[in-house]
Specification:
InterPro entries: LptF, LptG/LptF_permease. The protein is 61% helix and 15% strand. The chain has a six-stranded antiparallel sheet, with no helix packed on it. It is elongated and about 105 Å long.
Length: 390
């Protein structure tokens, strides 16, 4: 890269990083605020909170990075044009190919990063997020029982506690176990605390008693205790086999799915659409960067408005994304629509390159077409009175 190209690259890179970090941070905060109930209501640790919200970052980056690149290219070109640097570069004989090189380099770097995140990192983050949320929801004490309420489980266990202490301990515990027909076990305790030990969760009861009633007997035995541990694994139903959605599966699993899996047979189109959406995602940063360059890459004096060019570029980006979503949706229903998933960004790239390299000819053609339409519109009112007079 020449010195002037490195200068342009630094401007675009700085703008891109600022947009990416700023937009990702804002959206991540809004997502994190929605998960605050993990701490406030469900009693999870701060580490679990940051783990769950942090696993959404790869997805946010893949969505925001192409937009941040588009904004960065628009900003850099407007800055260069506003300082009359584009005009000086053009007067010095700098061709559009050399001017495009730093922007194209940045776009290729972003495309490579998006491809890696989409193909490798995102499926892993989705799968880990699913596993973490499953563990959180399986936390009986944090997510099932409610303060001051009697909660009855399908397994035949009724649980109640009076209130939750500031340190997370449960006060005033009542627990009735009627899983075995004719046999009832009641646990009463002043307080209890959930404890993890060797991968198992136990409820450690303090200062209480156990009331046991045997089958076919009215008599019950009472055992008092200072500390007693109850295995909470019995409180939750056995876990069913976890079925991962297409977006939660690795790219290799999408390329070579298990043809005998029932879920795959029912949602084969979603597997196909997810695979090709991943493989085509790296094309969109390249397309958005080239659209911005095609719209604003030509030098113009500061008296010439560039707002129309920016508006046209934004409209092209919106149309591109809508077409991409439509192609992905069509790929779910039809195998033949897979070609459209790749064709949409590729056509946008080719048209942007055409405008960038043949911009003067395209603008001359547009200007001639607009002038002809204007003359035609002016001629129609003049002919109308003649027709009425005749």
């Amino acid at each position: 890269m020449k010195q002037i190209e490195r200068y342009i690259f630094r401007i675009a890179l700085g703008a891109f990083l600022s947009c990416l970090i700023g937009l990702t941070g804002v959206i991540w905060v809004t997502q994190a605020l929605r998960e605050l109930d993990l701490i406030t209501a469900k009693g999870q640790t701060l580490l679990i909170f940051f783990l769950i919200t942090g696993l959404s970052l790869p997805t946010l980056i893949t969505v925001i990075a192409p937009v941040a690149l588009f904004i960065a290219v628009v900003y850099a070109l407007n800055k260069l044009n506003g300082d009359s640097e584009l005009i000086v570069m053009s007067a010095a004989g700098m061709s559009p190919r050399h001017l495009m090189r730093p922007f194209l380099t940045l776009a290729l770097i972003v495309s490579a990063a998006i491809g890696f995140l989409t193909i490798q990192v995102m499926p892993s983050s989705f799968q880990e997020l699913r596993d973490v949320l499953t563990r959180v929801r399986g936390d009986f004490i944090a997510n099932v029982v409610k303060e001051g309420q009697f909660t009855t489980l399908d397994s035949g266990i009724t649980f109640h506690f009076r209130e939750r202490a500031p340190n997370g301990a449960l006060l005033g515990i009542f627990m009735q176990d009627r899983r075995e027909a004719g046999k009832t076990v009641v646990y009463l305790a002043e307080r209890g605390q959930a404890v993890d030990l060797d991968g198992q969760t136990y409820l450690v009861l303090e200062k209480g008693s156990i009331h046991r009633q045997q089958p076919n007997s009215r008599d019950s035995s009472i055992i008092t205790f200072q500390r007693y541990a109850v295995d909470l694994a019995a409180f939750t139903p056995p876990d069913a086999d976890t079925i991962y959605k297409p977006r939660e599966r690795s790219t290799v699993q999408l390329l070579f799915p298990d043809a005998n899996e029932t879920y795959y047979k029912l949602t084969k189109g979603r597997f196909r659409a997810e695979l090709h959406d991943r493989l085509s995602s790296w094309l969109y940063p390249l397309a958005l960067g080239l659209i911005a360059f095609a719209a604003l890459g030509d030098p113009r004096t500061t008296r010439q408005g560039r707002g129309l060019a920016v508006a046209g570029a934004i409209a092209a980006v919106v149309g591109l994304r809508i077409a991409g979503f439509a192609a992905a949706s069509a790929a779910v229903r039809s195998q033949g629509a897979v070609a459209a998933v790749y064709a949409v960004p590729v056509i946008a790239i080719l048209l942007s390159l055409l405008v960038a390299y043949q911009g003067s000819r395209v603008r001359a053609f547009n200007a001639a077409l607009a002038a002809r339409l204007r003359r035609l519109s002016e001629a129609l009112p003049a002919r109308a009175p003649r027709v009425r007079a005749g």
